[in-house]
Amino acid sequence: MKKLTLLTIALLAAGVVSMPAADAKAIWEKDCTKCHGADGKGETKMGQKVGVKNMADAKVQADMKDAEMTKAIKEGVKDKEDKTKMKAFPDLTDEEIKSLVAMIREFKK
Length: 109
Fold this sequence. Notes:
With 109 residues, the protein is mostly helical. It has one domain (2-105): Cytochrome Bc1 Complex, Chain D, domain 2, CATH 1.10.760. It has helices at 2-36, 45-50, 58-63, 66-75, 94-105, and strands spanning 77-78, 84-86. A two-stranded antiparallel ribbon has the order 1-2. Helix 1 packs across helix 5. The chain is globular. Mean pLDDT is 85; it is low at 10-19.
């Protein structure tokens, strides 16, 4: 009986851990792929227009800090003329943003 209880708890915990990843994927597909593409490379019409970075590139990944990505998601990104390059997503929770950043890190090849 103890083994069954432990197994049930482990499975429930695994489900809770994977939920943020599933949420991040849904958020990415809904809000990010138009510019960044499904693979994070930015090879979309809009991505090329605004000059998004290739998130799958190891050098780009090395140069990006988690705090910078978090700030960009929360506050958006503007160019030197203060024109919006990426809109802000202030309604996302800290956990959703953390999951998005983790997902972006997985794009690195």
